[in-house]
């Protein structure tokens, strides 16, 4: 199995090094090849997504990605900015399913802004569709308002749309993810108001026939937003469209209060995926050896589970992370009094040790 390693910029190389170390400690035979991306890609060959990097990502069975971006590139033309590499990879690899777990380890319950009893032990997965919805629907723009009380004035407009195949494929990803967890799936929509999301609901209900072992329920997005704060542990897997998923996944991530802990995956139709921490390249702490590598290490665990079919090894990594937290080891971002502050490398080493 071949893994493309794309460390990127800022803290990217530091945290990816730790994840690679953990992968190497599993006793598996992975072929790993590293290539520059983002600002590093621009420095190496004048483009944030160099051709050779894209070729490697296409050939590989999975991509482990650090983070890209640095303020020093803010003056470049937009197509040359580091962040364009992510969009290019999503487009070229056909990555349409974004998986964002929000997990709050009991040891970090105080990191959340919500009461510990509401969030402690939280473990939910948001599956967000990435390629459709109002973000990409045509037509869109500003035009003359054709009717109603504001007729003749300028109006801004977008088009919300989902093709049946687009809904089916994300529904399959979500049902299969639910099968690997506690077999409960909530589809979030706004079917009471929007035609697109009545259609979404109908198609998800139809796909459900292929997954009788998964319990499906439907929830309006406004209620879902409320329940995520009121009783987030009621959820297991949530599937929703691009815009609702954008908002709800950030909301769910912040329930945990610890950006350095959250992994993510973006999958194609064959479960090939790009795995990355949910945070950015943190230029403010780059090179200091203090970044939290756990989100990247947990992204590697997701890669094993979703793309490389090695669920047991994924469990091993996740359990090792739980163990180091239980030992009281903390990087600066999750440190609290009474725990032991460690750096990036020490944290990586502790996870390797805990694997045993
Ligand atoms: P950021 O996520 O990089 O940092 C936000 C804050 O969180 C900073 O204070 C940072 O030090 C801290 N932080 C982030 N990850 C951490 C970790 N692992 N351990 C400890 N602390 C951590 O967001 P930003 O500052 O808004 O953006 C910085 C750069 O990252 C920008 O160029 C932005 O475009 C880019 N970015 C890239 C991605 C990506 O590569 N997928 C995502 C978001 C932002």
UniProtKB/TrEMBL annotation:
Gene Ontology CC: cytosol
Any single biological process term in GO: L-leucine biosynthetic process
Binding locations of NAD(+): 280-292
Amino-acid positions noted as binding substrate in the UniProt annotation, renumbered to this chain: 90, 100, 128, 222
Isopropylmalate dehydrogenase-like domain: residues covered: 2-351
Places the protein is found: Cytoplasm
Reactions performed catalytically: (2R,3S)-3-isopropylmalate + NAD(+) = 4-methyl-2-oxopentanoate + CO2 + NADH
Cofactor(s), names only, from the UniProt record: Mg(2+); Mn(2+)
Pfam families: Iso_dh
UniProt-listed InterPro entries: IsoCit/isopropylmalate_DH_CS, IsoPropMal-DH-like_dom, Isopropylmalate_DH
This enzyme's EC code(s): 1.1.1.85
Pathway connected to this protein: Amino-acid biosynthesis; L-leucine biosynthesis; L-leucine from 3-methyl-2-oxobutanoate: step 3/4
Cofactor binding remark: Binds 1 Mg(2+) or Mn(2+) ion per subunit.
Binding site for Mg(2+): 222, 246, 250
Predominant location: cytoplasm
Marked site positions, Important for catalysis: 135, 190
Matching SMART domains: Iso_dh
PROSITE patterns xref list: IDH_IMDH
Molecular function (Gene Ontology), one example: 3-isopropylmalate dehydrogenase activity
This protein's record includes keyword Phosphoprotein: no
Keyword annotations of the record: Amino-acid biosynthesis, Branched-chain amino acid biosynthesis, Cytoplasm, Leucine biosynthesis, Magnesium, Manganese, Metal-binding, NAD, Oxidoreductase
Family, similarity comment: Belongs to the isocitrate and isopropylmalate dehydrogenases family. LeuB type 1 subfamily.
Chain's role: Catalyzes the oxidation of 3-carboxy-2-hydroxy-4-methylpentanoate (3-isopropylmalate) to 3-carboxy-4-methyl-2-oxopentanoate. The product decarboxylates to 4-methyl-2 oxopentanoate.
PANTHER family according to UniProt: 3-ISOPROPYLMALATE DEHYDROGENASE
Subunit text: Homodimer.
UniProt name for this protein: 3-isopropylmalate dehydrogenase
Organism: Duganella radicis
Lineage per the UniProt record: Bacteria, Pseudomonadati, Pseudomonadota, Betaproteobacteria, Burkholderiales
